Amino acid sequence: MEERNRSASLRRALTVLDHVRAHPGLTLTQLAEAVGLSKSTVLRLTAPLIEAGLLDRDRDSGLYRLGHGALRLGQAYLDTLDLRAVAAEESHRLMAEVGETVHLVVPDHPHVVYIDKVENEASVRMASRIGSRGPVHCTAVGKAILAWQPAELLTGLVLEPRTRHTITDVERLRAELAQIRRRGYAVDDRENEPEVRCVAAPIFDHQDAVAAAVSVSGLTSRITAARVRELGPLVAAAAARISSKLGSTTR
């Protein structure tokens, strides 16, 4: 019974902590009403959180906010993150779901660098290699990243025609990036390789800045124009789950 009571108290304390995280600057009365507990219970639950530095209560106003201990915990968590490790589970899950090659890339403007690859052994293997680079303007992963970067990055960008489908007009590329932001995913429709289509979505870090992109690639015989519309939301959802694991609040 005592252990069960401790667990219940811990859960309630965590509820209080999470509510202060989402709604900083509450008084004791406001916090108690928000979490459905008495003021005396909130005082009891917050005392050890304040001692540990996870919460702070202003001496003059009495308002609650996160303490410096929360920052230390957050930084310790971020220090343990490795993008490839964080994305691995979702990349394999996405590959199993769609049956096509999944890539993970990071920006190196005006290129992207492929840092991981998950292939479906039953399908045609993609020629991409981990460590190789691709152009930012005509790959889906590149455009997914570029769509959330400052507009100035387009200035001076060389739009080399890789195939007859490559976008080589900067205004047309601007319009394409705006469309990517609206729908949440990018498409390379034979723009980098003549027989390959690719669908990609951006990955955001704990500062909600674009840090990477994940994609699904395959031959046009397998990834038809109609299938692109099915894959887009799936890739975007995978990217959102990876972003969440990295600490992003972007939805």
UniProtKB/TrEMBL annotation:
The keyword Lipid metabolism does not apply. Coiled coil: none annotated. Pfam families: HTH_IclR, IclR_C. Residues 69-248 form the IclR-ED domain. Keywords: DNA-binding, Transcription, Transcription regulation. The keyword Transcription regulation applies. Gene3D superfamilies: 3.30.450.40, Winged helix-like DNA-binding domain superfamily/Winged helix DNA-binding domain. Residues 7-68 form the HTH iclR-type domain. This is IclR family transcriptional regulator. It comes from Nonomuraea monospora.
